Structures are given as structure tokens and as C-alpha cells.
Amino acid sequence: MKNAVNKTISGIIEIARGMATIMKHFFRPSITLEYPEKKPDLPPRFRGRLALLTNSDGTDACIGCKSCVKVCPCVDLIQIETSKDPETKKIVVEQFTIDIGRCIFCGNCTEICPKNAIVSTDEFELADYSRESLVFDKKALTLDPEKSQRLRDKKEKEVK
Amino acid sequence: MNKLIENSIKKDMLINVGPQHPSTHGVLRLILTLEGEIIKDTKPVIGYLHRGKEKLAESRTYFQYLPMVDRVDYLSGFFYQAALCYAAESIGEIKVPKRAEYIRLITMEFNRIASHLLWLGSFLLDLGATSPLFYVFREREKIITLFEELTGQRMMYNFYTYGGVKKDFPEGWIAKAIDLCKEMPKLFDEYEAIITKNPIVLERTQKTGILSKELGLNYGITGPNIRASGVNLDLRKSNTYSVYNETDFKTCLAQSGDSYARYIVRVQEMRESLKIVEQALKQIPGGTPEKLKVKKVNCNCNREECEYCGFDSKLAEKKINPMTFKLPIGEATAMIESARGIIACYLVSDGTAKPYRIKWRTPSFSAVQILPELIKNSPYSDLMPIFGSLDVVLPEVDR
Amino acid sequence: MYDLYAKILNILRLPEIIAQLTWAVIPFACIAALMVFVVIFLVLMERKFLAWLTVRKGPNRVGPNGFLQTFADAIKLLFKEDIMSEETNKLLFTIAPVIAFAPVMIIYGLMPFTEHLIAINIAVGLFLVFALSSLTTVGIVLAGWSSNNKYSLLGGMRSAAQAISYEIPLVIAVLSIAVIAGSLNLKEIVTAQSGGLFSWNIFPAFIGFIVLFICSIAEVNRVPFDLPEAESELVSGYNTEYSGMKFALFFLAEYAALFIMSVLISTLFLGGYLPPFNDYLSIILLDNIIKNQAIMDILIHLEQGFWLVAKTYTLLFLIIWIRGTLPRLRADQLMGFSWKFLLPLAFINLILTSIIKLAIQGY
Prior knowledge:
Shape of chain A: elongated
Oligomer: heterotrimer
Largest sheet of chain A: 3 strands, antiparallel
Shape of chain C: globular
Structural class of chain C: mainly alpha
Strand order of the largest sheet of chain A: 2-3-5
Number of strands of chain C: 0
């Protein structure tokens, strides 16, 4: 009998303690981030959509070495077509297509690029109505020289 | 004739707790045979989340496979990367600098805390208490923000490499991590106040789903599940890897083996992991990255043993060339104590740039097999608390 | 009141017969409107409170601060397709929500909201309330059975077992109130508690209050007793197969029953529409200012409504707070709790209140 009464009283006390703890949260500010009015704060290392950089004189930074194709875990995600310029004997990149819908945002290609030509931006809102529209060709991927310089500075600061 | 009568009197009902269910922690199908409300038999059907991770490894180079590894179990990504890296380093005899080992240890322990927090939230949701789920996600958000600053992604980190880690801490990370370690125990106290001595939780979880030592060891159950039954099996103490032997923590044990004991063990493990992280953050060779940079410039001695310029302060022995990275012919098994149990990665290399075979041994696979034994002759309402306390995550089961 | 109404209709030049016919309908129309309004507000209040208890914001997009959220939900449910599988018993499937909902609506008519606002004032009001609340269980069992779904069947059976075992302590706890007040008429029970805070029924029958509170949460199938609709186990229990307006009826029935149970507890134990002071606030504060008796009457009326609403919503807040904290009880533990714990308590309460009543009446 005494045991039952003790158990009841301790049960009530514990329930009351639990309820008081939860009540404390009533008075704390909410932690909701009201998206899409407020966007989240992204750190500098964030791996978002891929983009190609250009040099300050307008030419592409990519030299067509195809290292990024070889380290991408998704087979056939990056398709590059190059041709050799007959006069300067340099490699000209004609087509550079990435299927952003299949990209897993691992960042392997950005780590290996010798000229720092392919980088991760901080775009993550890529939803669209059809899968075909998520295949980005060279024009869609390339950023203008100003933005390129900003991203390059950010990456330099990061690496240091 | 007798059989006909018998069959019509038999009252067994076949119920399908289907792949789509609010509470099966993933896509698992359980075919239950119920008599009234008592469960007589269970048959788990798995394979709904099979992605072929082991076969995919055979057609990817070592560097290409690294980002796919933390998707084997997305809740404990760092542990799987660690298992693969240790196996490859064991075959290739690559030495890992101490700073990299410390970074690995800190990230792994934070990942353990995050995984246990998620388990806690979903376990209580199965029992019916809906509030702690939101508190848990608030805590997890803090840890995941730290990871996002460190690696760039919240869940699929792609951070370890063969020989070390890929990047160093950003500025201010260590201070933030130490602050987090100091404020977390108070939040754990809050959870304990809500749950640990709540009479309803006690009634529902005590004396249900008792896992005996022999049964657990026969089925190969590891991790907190078996430690709650009294078996002192913690790979961080018995077969030490990484720099766990330089940190001081205790193994959490319980004796009764029921669902409540598993809950207690995991909550205690979270506190121990916090202690490990705090010690590691203070002991890391070289200190914060800003301090390391300055001291390296000042010291500039290039001796091997120097704390700031030597081998131990690097992030990786040498930067591997992803295109030509090869491992010599050989095979190795690396075992890691992850949040749910022991992960083993068995790697066979045939000398080329692609592995010949990778096999993953995952703890949830064994835990699902023991479910039919644990819920025999329990009422149907006990299914979810017992299953929840085993901490089964389906991507681990199906790979 | 009827004369006023007849006079108004006379001015509008409508025949006398219309006044006689419609006079009876008006209270029920008011009750229906009240019910809808109350449920809408209650659903929103629950979502917002639960959100604030878990450091979130509740619905805040539809309407200012989320006020129109329930309207949006109701309109959405109206537009949904009514799915019925081939093998369900269509008649029972359709009737089940109605059976679960209609008795609750009748109970709304029995409650004394203020001194004059009571639609059905009969001598056995209290008895009728509990007779009707048992009918809702029939609706739930029918829903579980006619869904042709094993989960729903389990939910329905559990609900029947739970409802039956929690009604007995409920009725015995309420019996002690009938002993104290000496009648089963709800309005007389309220008037027997007049005289300030300490003559409310909660004081002699505190144990009865606790028992009634717990049992009414169990009758409405709320956490920690919501096994019939346990989301993590049975997907949704007896209302898994329902969609569209039928689901809305179940939903409505649960929240309406919750509100009316709180009103019942306030009426029986907390003094109903009576103030906790000796007299109404309007009389205390405004006695010398307002001389017109009619206006004073209206003010007292409004104040009575205010006190009832305040007590009811305090109890509702407590119920929502409990929902946010406690986990669920298992089926057999639920039954054990009721038969082994609440029933003896209810009997003890009955004996105690009888002794107290005899002692007081002896003077």
C-alpha cells in the first residue's frame, strides 16, 4: 500500500517536472527561419551549383584537360568536347555540358581543377519543371569576369 | 474435417506493417502474424532501399568512390568514410598525421552525437511524445551548422581522403565547437527531465524487448544494443584506432537489456562523446589554424618532430593524385565503432586504380534480424518502442 | 423573450404561426453556429500552442497570424474525393461519422452557457449528457469495422474497450456532484455553487475533479490515451480510410467533444458561469454608475459568458499542454490504470463527498 502511494506521488512529481520543462520552451523565441522571405546564412565553403570561371580579359579559364570528367563519381555527368586550334596549337573547349540534375554536389571536380576554372557557387534553389532544363551548357555555366574574380578571391581566402 | 474446424477456429491475423509507414524508420516491410493483439511471428522483408553500393565500387576509382561512401548511411557519414580510409591506408601502408587523426576523431564523435539525437527524437515520437522531436532537431541543427562550415555540406561530407583529411578547420571553428560542448550538457539535462523518470515511459519501455547476452552475441549485435545487456564490447577501447587512446572516457554499460536500458546507454554515450570532443579540441597538435599558421612561419625549422612544422601538423602525408592513385595488391578489413554498432569495411585490391571488391558489414543488418526474437508474445503496441530502441536505419540494412 | 420575438415578427407582418414554429429552431441554430465557431478556433489554438511549446511558430501564412488556417483546411476537405473501396459496407461507412458526431451536438444544447442561454433545460440533464456521450463510441466502432481494413478494425476495437472502461469512473465521479447538489439538473448544480470561490464543487470533491479530468481526456481519445488513433502504430486508426467531408466530421466531432467536456467540467466543478467573487464584477464595479436594470442584466449576462469561457479555456490549455508532454499509454496499461487506479479513487471520492454533505446538512 505504502509502495503504491509512493509510486503515485513520485509519478506525479516526475510528470509535473516534465511539463514544467516543456513550459519553459513556451517563453523562448522560436527558431523558425521563415523561408523564402529570409534565406539561410551560407558558409564560404558551401558546395552549391557548379559554374565555370572566366579570366579578367574575357577568355575561359578552362584549358580542356578533362580531369574533372575523370574524378566525377557520376559517370557521363560532365561532357566536354575539345578541338585543337590549328594556328596557336592550343586546345579550345567547344562544348562543356553538365547535367546539374544528376550532380551530387560532392566537389571532387572543384578540388582537382588545375586552373581553378570550375567552382561551386552558393546557389541551391535549382528546382525546375522539366529535367531537360537542368542540363546546363557552356553558356549557362559560365560566369562573367567580375563574378569570377569574386569567387576566385573567396576561394583564395579559403585555401589560405 | 477436424482440420477444417481447426482452421476456422484459429484466429491468426496476418498484418502488413508496410514499406510506407510513419514509423518504420525507412522502408521496411514487416509481415506480422497476430493472434488478437499478441504478436506470434514476424518476418522482415528488406531490399526496398538497395542502391548497389558494393557493386558500384567495382567500376569507380578510389577517388571517385569517396563521395558515394557517406551515402551508405547518411546519418553517420563520417564513420563510413573512416572505415574505407583506414582499410585503404592499411593496404597501402599510408601513414596519417596526428592532426588529421584528431580532426577525424572530433568529426566522428560529433557525428555520433548527432545520430543519437535523431534516434532519441524518433524513439519518443514512436512512443507518442511529439515535443522532444523538435528540441532534438534544434540541437542537431547546431552540430550540422558546424559541419557545414567545416566541409561545405550538411550531410554528405566528402571530407576524408586516403592519408588524412582534405581541409583544415576554418577560422573560429574550434571556439564555436568548444562553446557548443559547454552548452550541450544542459540541454541533455532538459531531455532527461522530460523523459527519464516519466512514469509512462518507464511503464512502456521497462521489461519489454529484453535482449539476453547469448542471443545478442549469437546474432552479432554490437554497439549500444549489446552494451545495454551487459557485454563490455567497445571497439574504441578494445581495438583502438585513431587517437582514442589519448582521450579519457568510459564505456557506458547497463545490465537489464530492455528498451529502457538501451535508452539510458545512448544518452550516457552522448555525454561521454562530448567529453571526448572537448579533450580532443584542447589537445589537437598545432592548436587552432591561425595559431598553427603563425607558429609555422615563426618556427620554420622543418624538423620531423616539431609540433608546428613536422609531420604531425599536416593534414595528409602527401596530396594524392586522384588520377593515378593505386593501391598495391592486398586485402584489409577496417572496423570502426559507429553510432549503431561495428562497421567493417573489407577491401580487396588487385593493384589497379579501381578496387576489386568492397564489402560493408553494417550493424543495422544484424539488428533487424533480432527483431522477431524480441517481440515474440508481446502485444502489438510494443512493436514500435522495441523496434525504435534498436536504432535500425534502413539505408544501412539495404546498402 | 418569446413576446419580444413575436412582436418583432408582427412588425414585419409575418403570421403568428411562423413565430411559433421558428422560435424552437433558433436555439439550435445558435448552437450549430457556436459549435462550428468554437471548433475552428480550437483547432487553430491547439496548433499554435503546440508550436509555441516546441519553439516553433504555428500556422502564420493564411490570414493575419494564421487565423484563417482552419477555414482553408475545411475548404480543402470539402473538395477532396470521397474514396470508398469496393468491399466496404457503404451504408455503415457513411453513417459512422454521423453517429460519432450527432450526439455531441445534442450535448451542446444541454449545457448552461449563461443563466438564460440553455437550450434544453430538463430535470435529468446530467444523466442525458452521459447517455449521449456513450453513443459516440458506437460510431467509432462502426467506422473501424466497415472500413474493411485490419488497422481500422484494431483501432475501433481498442477504442470501444477504452471508452467502456473509462466511463465507469467518470460516472461515479459525477455521481458525487449529484449528491452535493441534490439534483440532476445542470442549472441547479451551477446555482448550488454560488457564493464565491470556496463554495465551488472542486473543494469538497477534489479527487473527483482529478478523476473526471483524466477520464474525459480518455473519452475524447486524446494523448496520453489516444491509442485508437495512434499515428505511429496504426497509421491513423479508425479514420484511416476516410477522406473528404467524412474525415472532417470525425475531426469536428473530436474537437467539439473536447470543448463540451471542458464546459462540463467547468460547470460541475468550477462553478460554471459563476464568478469566483461573491457577486458579479459588473455589480461590484458598476453598481452606482449604471441605473438601468436592463443594461445591467445584459452586462451580467455577458460577464457570465466570460467566466465560463475563461474557465473552459484554462482547462483546454491544460489539456493541450499535456498533449505536448506525455507519451502514449499501451492498451493494457490503459485498462489497468482505469480499473485498478481510477475506479477505487472514484469510490473513495463518492464516500468522502457523501460524508461531507451529511456533515454540512446536519448543521
